[in-house]
User: Which sequence fits this backbone?
């Protein structure tokens, strides 16, 4: 059970405008998740931010070769909900959480991969938006690294 | 010669409730280029039974993968200069033709680049979500 951390940085000079997150998965390589592995996201900044919301969005990544097969689902993660007496796993495309308290480092997640035939050996994209919603309009930073799932 | 501003639309079908999944593109798949004054929007048609009264739309703008361009988004708040990376439409109802329309923004020019539009459509009554991420360019 491995945890792959993605570290993003918010650079000075973007306090008022937002912009791009820099960085990506630690080590620089595209991780390949196996059953039970998790992803976390750490955001650091050059300045104090009063609160930060981490928005995770998952989509299928483009195939390696043009015209090649693409993941059949947009995300390898599920969110479990109860419908009456039935527990179902819905495809997790978006999740977000907010952390408060003036800080310069935040960690979001984890999200944990449970392998299925529909999600093995596929490529996905994590689009991450860090937002300071204490300001209006919010100050936002974004980036979209890719990750794989193994067999 | 300047062109007349237009509305660029990414169109999708949602096959029905189920567990959620991928939005199914309809219409042309070419990468559009927005010129100054052009508006961008997403339209979704519910193709299954039990059409929801309302859907939620989450639109995320990022540079295309592997890009080193400085711009996070071509859409900027005019008053503050803040990049619009995430836009939320909390509740959109279908029109008489069954289309749910999620406005994104209008491109005001001067921010040329290649961008990705990541779309998540949610049905809060069933906690079901669908997503897709087409690309678009912006002209000078």
Assistant:
């Amino acid at each position: 059970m491995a945890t792959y951390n993605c570290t993003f940085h918010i650079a000075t000079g973007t306090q008022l405008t937002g912009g791009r997150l820099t960085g990506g998965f630690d080590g620089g390589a595209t991780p390949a998740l196996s059953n039970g592995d998790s992803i976390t996201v750490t955001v650091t900044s050059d300045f104090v931010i009063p609160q930060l919301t981490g928005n995770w969005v998952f989509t299928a990544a483009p195939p390696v070769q043009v015209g090649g097969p693409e993941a059949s689902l947009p995300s390898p993660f599920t969110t479990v909900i109860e419908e009456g007496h039935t527990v179902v796993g819905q495809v997790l495309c978006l999740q977000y959480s907010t952390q408060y308290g003036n800080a310069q480092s935040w960690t979001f997640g984890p999200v944990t991969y449970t392998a299925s035939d529909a999600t093995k050996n596929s490529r996905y994209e994590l689009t991450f938006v860090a937002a300071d919603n204490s300001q209006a309009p919010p100050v936002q930073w974004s980036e979209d690294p890719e990750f794989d799932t193994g067999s | 010669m300047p062109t007349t501003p237009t509305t660029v639309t990414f169109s999708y079908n949602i096959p029905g409730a189920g567990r959620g999944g991928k939005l199914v593109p309809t219409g042309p798949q070419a990468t559009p280029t927005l010129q100054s004054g052009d508006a961008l929007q997403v339209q979704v048609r519910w193709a299954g039974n039990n059409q929801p009264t309302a859907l939620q739309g989450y639109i995320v703008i990022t540079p295309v993968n592997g890009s080193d361009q400085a711009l996070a988004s071509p859409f900027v708040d005019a008053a503050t200069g803040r990049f619009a990376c995430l836009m939320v439409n909390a509740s959109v109802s279908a029109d008489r033709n069954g289309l749910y329309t999620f406005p994104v923004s209008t491109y005001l020019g001067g921010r040329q680049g290649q961008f990705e539009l990541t779309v998540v459509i949610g049905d809060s009554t069933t906690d079901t979500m669908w997503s897709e991420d087409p690309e678009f360019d912006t002209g000078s």
Notes: Chain A has one domain: 3-149. The first strand of chain A starts at residue 3 and ends at 10. The CA atoms of residues 120 and 151 of chain A lie 5 Å apart.
